[in-house]
């Protein structure tokens, strides 16, 4: 492992700008708001920020529907504000990664407006157009992740166009070389502006099967994995032809060649599909495609340590020289204390999940508010704005509950805004966990995060080391991390009861920050109190 590459083992803090801090009191967080909170982010001790989309957008999917790839939406500020954000981040020693939503644009994007205008315009083939079947029905059985067919009828062209997500998010046609050039130009625009890397939205969706073959049905549908909900027909297909196509490799190589002209830049590709491991391996092996892939495996409801170990071992074995990136929460999934912890013993669980995540091998994305131990916000149907949630309510409650504004203070508006109309309501339970409440409390989740991030930073084995698993059961995980002369033993107990393990080798227990419950050695045993971690050094 070459640890001179900053992104290996880096901790990336995901900011969802709409909900971070509102600097101009219109009820929506913005880029100057992020800049104003840069001290806070830097003080956490993370390496980088990942900004969710802030580009010009009609906001049908809250920015994941881009109408101008090279500009800032006025709601979020200006390009000058972005330049200031980067400068401030860099002054604080933080890298800046931005989201690139290249698979699809907004239907308001001038490219799509032109493309739909006729059959013979310059951009006629920039999106994926297909004729209706003779009986007028959709070209094939492909489905949208957000529900319904992946095809939308356009009355002007009298054709269908493909959209893997909302019908206002038409998929770009990557089989057209002009599209690839145009997309790479927009990536270069941001490289020239000084960004340090990209989170690539839906990086395995770029290419589709040109023959438009039907997806076969799925033999076995397993509920609980990401995006697999039995209420969504999408789960019942094997997505062989609508995404994860082999042609993508060539595109990723071109993207990498561009990145390599800008030293110290990186990519993390979001890969969610039926063949995630093979796809992640194909995208990250060989150092000529993506730097990292973002795994969905810890975003499911399965909090058992067996699942964690199994996931880690499978990916370790499958990735070869590829490098993973983990997260236990983001702007698409229920917050982890609710998803894994059922909101019980939330503070202790937040700390131990964090310690586990930050001890595993790989880079890590933390999602804003995780460092406060925020539970999922509860919203009524009337309060929802996420179209995905609205479509599947009440079986699926959507993504608004993890996107409510950051609570900075325990006041009515949480210190997020002075506007009486924040774009999503401030959640009462979250307010009680505001930054200001936790600052003065050494035992808080916030202090645990800061302190353990410091532990990670100062122990190269935690950042770059190999990993070898020892014992585990549903709620216990023990493993060794080794890098050069440093060999660490880590034991995690995510249960509400003590766990006693035999002491099998001589070890020196390292003192953990006081905000964490620490395990200890007692005679011939290792004692792991409820929700604790033991960190020890081992002889080589
Ligand atoms: O998400 C991609 C993705 O696969 C999602 O459908 C995910 O499975 C779902 O949201 C889980 O609840 C990315 C972005 O992260 C998401 O916010 C966007 O809506 C989506 O792409 C379309 O751009
Ligand atoms: Ca604002």
Automatic annotation (TrEMBL):
InterPro entries: GH (IPR017853), GH13_cat_dom (IPR006047), Glyco_hydro_b (IPR013780), O16G_dom_2 (IPR045857). Residues 14-403 form the Glycosyl hydrolase family 13 catalytic domain. CDD domains: AmyAc_OligoGlu. SMART domains: Aamy (SM00642). SUPFAM superfamilies: (Trans)glycosidases (SSF51445), Glycosyl hydrolase domain (SSF51011). It holds the Pfam family Alpha-amylase. It comes from the Bacteria. Belongs to the glycosyl hydrolase 13 family. This is Alpha glucosidase. It comes from Marinomonas vulgaris. The lineage of its organism: Bacteria, Pseudomonadati, Pseudomonadota, Gammaproteobacteria, Oceanospirillales.
């Amino acid at each position: 492992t070459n640890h001179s590459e900053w992104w290996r083992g880096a901790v990336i803090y995901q900011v969802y700008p709409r909900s971070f801090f509102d600097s101009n009191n219109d009820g929506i967080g913005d880029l100057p708001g992020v800049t104003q909170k840069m001290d806070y982010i830097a003080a956490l001790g993370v390496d980088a920020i990942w900004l969710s989309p802030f580009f010009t957008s009609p906001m049908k999917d809250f920015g994941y529907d881009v109408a101008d790839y090279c500009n800032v939406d006025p709601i979020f500020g200006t390009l000058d504000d972005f330049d200031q954000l980067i400068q401030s981040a860099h002054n604080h020693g933080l890298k800046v990664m931005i989201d690139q939503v290249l698979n699809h644009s907004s239907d308001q994007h001038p490219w799509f407006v032109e493309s739909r205008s006729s059959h013979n315009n310059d951009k006629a083939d920039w999106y994926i157009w297909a004729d209706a079947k003779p009986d007028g029905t959709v070209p094939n059985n492909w489905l949208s992740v957000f529900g319904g067919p992946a095809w939308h009828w356009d009355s002007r062209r009298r054709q269908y166009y493909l959209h893997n997500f909302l019908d206002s998010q038409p998929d770009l046609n990557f089989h057209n070389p002009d599209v690839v050039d145009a997309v790479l130009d927009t990536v270069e625009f941001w490289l020239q502006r000084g960004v340090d890397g990209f989170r690539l939205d839906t990086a395995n969706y770029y290419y589709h099967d040109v023959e438009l073959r039907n997806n076969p049905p799925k033999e076995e549908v397993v509920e609980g994995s990401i995006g697999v909900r039995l209420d969504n027909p999408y789960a019942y297909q094997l997505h062989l032809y609508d995404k994860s196509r082999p042609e993508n490799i060539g595109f990723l190589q071109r993207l990498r060649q561009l990145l390599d002209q800008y030293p110290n830049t990186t990519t993390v590709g979001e890969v969610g599909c039926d063949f995630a491991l093979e796809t992640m391996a194909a995208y990250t092996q060989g150092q000529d495609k993506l730097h990292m892939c973002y795994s969905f495996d810890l975003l499911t409801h399965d909090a058992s340590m067996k699942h964690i170990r199994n996931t880690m071992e499978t990916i370790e074995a499958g990735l070869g020289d590829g490098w993973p990136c983990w997260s236990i929460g983001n702007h698409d999934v229920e917050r982890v204390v609710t998803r894994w912890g059922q909101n019980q013993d939330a503070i202790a669980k937040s700390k131990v999940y964090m310690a586990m995540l930050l001890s595993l091998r790989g880079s890590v994305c933390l999602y804003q508010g995780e460092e406060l131990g925020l539970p999922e916000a509860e919203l009524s149907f009337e309060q929802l704005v996420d179209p995905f949630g609205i479509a599947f309510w009440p079986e699926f409650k959507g993504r608004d509950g993890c996107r409510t504004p950051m609570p900075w203070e325990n006041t009515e508006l949480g210190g997020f805004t002075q506007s009486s109309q924040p774009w999503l309501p401030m959640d009462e339970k979250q307010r009680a966990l505001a930054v200001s409440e936790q600052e003065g409390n050494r035992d808080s989740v916030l202090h645990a995060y800061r302190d353990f991030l410091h532990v990670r930073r100062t122990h190269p084995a935690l950042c770059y080391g190999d990993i070898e698993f020892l014992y585990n059961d549903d709620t216990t995980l023990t493993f060794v991390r080794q890098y050069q002369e440093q060999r660490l033993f880590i034991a995690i107990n995510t249960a509400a009861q003590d766990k006693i393990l035999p002491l099998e080798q001589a070890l020196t227990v390292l003192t953990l920050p006081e905000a964490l419950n620490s395990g200890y050695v007692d005679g011939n045993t290792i004692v792991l109190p409820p929700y604790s971690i033991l960190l020890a050094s081992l002889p080589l």
